[in-house]
Amino acid sequence: MSQQGYVAAPPYSQAQPGMGGYQGGFGAGPAQPLYGHYGGPPQTFNGPPTGMMKAPVSSAVGMPPPAAPSQYNPNVQQNGAHPQRYPPPATPASYGQPSQSQYNNMAPAAPPPAQQLTNQMSTMNLGSYASGPMQSPPPPTNSVAQQPFQPAPPPAMGQPMMPPGPQSPHMSPHMSAPQSPQANMPMAGPPMAGPPMAAPPMGGPPMSGMGRPFPGPLPPGPGGFQQPGPGPAGPTGYPQQAGQFGGHMAGPQPGMPGMMGPQPGMMGPQPGSAGGLAGPPQKKLDPDSIPSTTQVIEDDQAKRGGQVYNTNIRGQVPPLVTTEFPIQDQGNASPRFIRCTTYSLPCTADLAKQCQVPLAAIIKPFASVPKNETPLYVVNHGETGPIRCNRCKAYMCPYMQFIDGGRRFQCGFCNCVNEVPAFYFQHLDHMGRRVDFYERPELSLGSYEFAATLDYCKNNKVQNPPAYLFMIDVSYNNVKSGLVKLICDELKTLLDNLPCEDGSESSAIKVGFVTYNKVLHFYNVKSALAQPQMMVVSDTAEMFVPLLDGFLVNYQDSRAVIYNLLDQIPDMFADSNESETVFVPVIQAGVEAFKAAECSGKLFIFHSSMPTAEAPGKLKNRDDKKLVNTDKEKTLFQPQKGVYEQLSKDCVAQGCCVDLFLFPSQYVDVATMADVPSHTGGSVYKYNNFQVETDGEHFLTDLRKDVQKSIGFDAIMRVRTSTGFRATEFFGAIHMNNTTDIEMAAVDCDKALTVEFKHDDTLSEETGALMQCALLYTTINGQRRLRIHNLSLNCSLQLSELYKSCETDSLINFFAKSACRAILNQPLKNVREILVNQTAHMLSCYRKNCATPSAASQLILPDAMKVFPVYMNSLMKSAPLVGSTELSTDDRAHQRLSIMAMGVEDTQLLLYPRLTPLHNLDVGSEALPAPVRCSEERLSESGMFLLENGQSMFLWLGLGSPPDIVQSLFNVPSLAHLQGNMSALPELDNPLSAKVRSIISGLMEKRPNSMKLQIVRQKDKPEMLFRQFLVEDKSLHGGASYMDFLCYVHREIRLLLT
Ligand SMILES: [Zn+2]
């Protein structure tokens, strides 16, 4: 198969009116005129011919190499320890150069070689679906009979596309389809050459997840995900039979479920129909012939890894999130802070609608910056505060154009012309640029901070430093399991490592302690005391904090008293039999404490059970597996309303972030308990059936990482855009009181929010599209700051530009979050169906408008999206979306909430785990072995593989693992001697052991969360757990294999192209 590059280009999110998240995009029922061409006569070819791609507009912010650091004027403080202004480039040669030409949009003027998965894909026999790899009940027979899907044998190579035999009546339309002018061009690949698809799927167990979604019921109404309901156009439906051929496709809009007929099974694989249509037995399709994620990652690393990425070019697509590369800020925010689903927006809403590619940015405002890159500068304009546009309030940035000899500036966002304040005046050089351009971060960089004035502070008062409040559930089980002692012991050392501002000796963060079961115990740990004092509040209905002085203290000052307290807590409750707990009052106590101390901060709550004690927020077990795969399944994800809802608001108003560490032994209603954390920028950690011996280190590692994270408090963010488009939907661990201000009680280095954009008007290719993300927050020292990230994108009238500038990892982040939100309000099968439809739509639009004409039987994918289907399939098989009774409701709810706050790297890894072979390790080499595809086929009996997805980690040992390896790693003669339930490798003194342990710890280090290592032997029962992460295979919980999914999508695309 040839996997050459592709061509692709532009648009932005499907800006259907009213579409949010999945709204309009899907639900917009009625056939929109915009989609009209889909149904049009086959000849319609409204896309631009390939190869006519417009050259990108030149960079708005291109700039010469920056000046030396010393030139920054005195009101610019460096925000960190790195003296140099820009990190030394890894590859000096490219330093300061305008761009790496190959990535420069200008480069590809010629039609890219189509990535034609011809050889094999073209031969994919859709008929093999018939056997119903898909689970779900077989559709009514009549629908089966009508299904025309039969495997069309692929045409012979080099021949013009012929409708394969009798079974392919529906193929003929494809042939004459859009690109008919070139229909007779030689086939890119020997379509049939490949073995016809075997039908691994056939005969397999039914899969869930797939069967349903496609055939699905009526799509949601106009509201899309938000508003389930029959789409207005619903009744039109797809005629089941002949309708699929010929021009009938006109009506239904791809991606618009509203149009789909209600007949179940209609689109889906037909379990029953298989036999007859499938034709002769087929050989298995070569799995190597379908696009490989690991290959894409490896190629990008080889091509762009290690090279300095300069951000001076508008609309350039950064290296993949999996690629390691240093970044030099030259006027646009680093991709560590902002990534986009595409870097070239379609100029018009119509184009956006046409392609249905979501237009979104994933913003991680506090992303960690590696040591070799410059931390953000802080600009301080004193009492004047930051300079802003008078009209739209955008902050001074590289997109402001100085005019009139420097006396005025024109806003790049709203075009308003503003006076330059006298103190800020500077002359312009012959290029029209201020002569202090390189001395001011806000003129030359994509990201920087402003010191905020009192106007930006709550109540116009100087802020207090934030506080960390540790709240420990001391009910019977926690004391008995040793958890309470573990936490208390850890805190003694952990508190020495509270984050502090660079340069300061000790942290300004105050600390306080609460223990609780049915009642709350507050502790006075004032430094003057010899012994801590406890105050008990048993009236949990009206929570208050019984002491102020001595409750929130400086750890260094009160260290002795705190030590004393931490030593005593486990003993104090050693004899307690209290097993009931409260929960809401615990959070309320935190909010009240911060209110009294006039500060923001974070609660660390260590909790085990469902709060059943009589108090606000008391919960009942409402878990019900019978709801899975019904329209009521969504209720399993919905939090209980009422007091929890109000509590989130109170927390956000006070800047009180909640981190929840859960240690459940059964259902605890995570959907509700995690509701407050997930609206306050908090994290939820969950350790099922926690045991100190096996899970202790895992938990402590999470706790340490969490406490030490870089973080901002009491944050409010706004995303401003240039005219023509705007942010309309927001996904994250956030709270919103209105439609524009994103509030977060705190935001740490791992939290990302995803913002979707829609058109208001036509965008200009010349000026491009600009966005500015401004985050107002309180530092750990109590300073109020504004963190600014700017990014400029291209705009194009050519869809090919959009597709070329897409980023699959960002797209899947968007889809993951929007789907995870959608399942709160819609049946899961609708959500899955929408995902598939949109996938097919995006790809068919590319095919129709951007690809070199070729046989309909060929699957052609945009180069930048060639592995999109594998991620999409994996998303539909993820715990929240899969609809399996095998998975615990709490685990599903937990993962759903985790995804909502994930950045691009996290969703990438979650949906395509890293599977690394360790049996051929070169212990002398620094390099990690190349990961392999996540499929059972890649495992070998004599092999050893490490799999991780950011949440779980497995070491899989083949039955035939060589004894010497087993000996080196485990110090036992054979696998049979291994103890069950191992969660760590013994520390043995040999190179292999050291190497493997260092690989494991290196991976743990890189991830936001710690992972518990699970060691599984091939064929052992726990291997089932491991197998669910082999995302290219059919899922144990229901869900198609990658191959099946790709075939399915391919068929959908062909239908759309008819
Ligand atoms: Zn403005």
Topology:
Layout: H1 36-39, E1 76-77, H2 118-122, H3 141-146, H4 171-176, H5 274-278, H6 293-304, E2 309-310, E3 327-328, E4 338-340, E5 344-346, H7 349-355, E6 360-363, E7 378-379, E8 401-403, E9 408-410, E10 417-419, H8 441-444, E11 447-451, E12 467-473, H9 476-481, H10 483-494, E13 510-516, E14 520-524, E15 533-537, E16 553-554, H11 555-572, H12 584-597, E17 601-607, H13 643-654, E18 656-662, H14 670-673, H15 675-679, E19 684-686, H16 692-708, E20 711-721, E21 725-731, E22 735-736, E23 742-748, E24 753-759, E25 769-778, E26 784-796, H17 799-804, H18 808-822, H19 828-849, H20 868-876, H21 879-882, H22 889-900, H23 904-911, E27 914-917, E28 944-948, E29 953-957, H24 963-970, H25 991-1006, E30 1013-1017, H26 1023-1027, H27 1042-1057
Parallel strand pairs: 2-3, 5-26, 7-11, 12-13, 12-17, 17-18, 18-19, 29-30
Antiparallel strand pairs: 1-7, 4-6, 6-24, 8-9, 9-10, 11-26, 13-14, 13-16, 14-15, 20-23, 20-25, 21-24, 22-23, 25-26, 27-28, 28-29
Helix pairs in contact: 10-11, 10-16, 12-13, 18-20, 18-22, 18-23, 19-20, 19-27, 20-27, 24-25
Bound molecules: zinc ion (ZN).
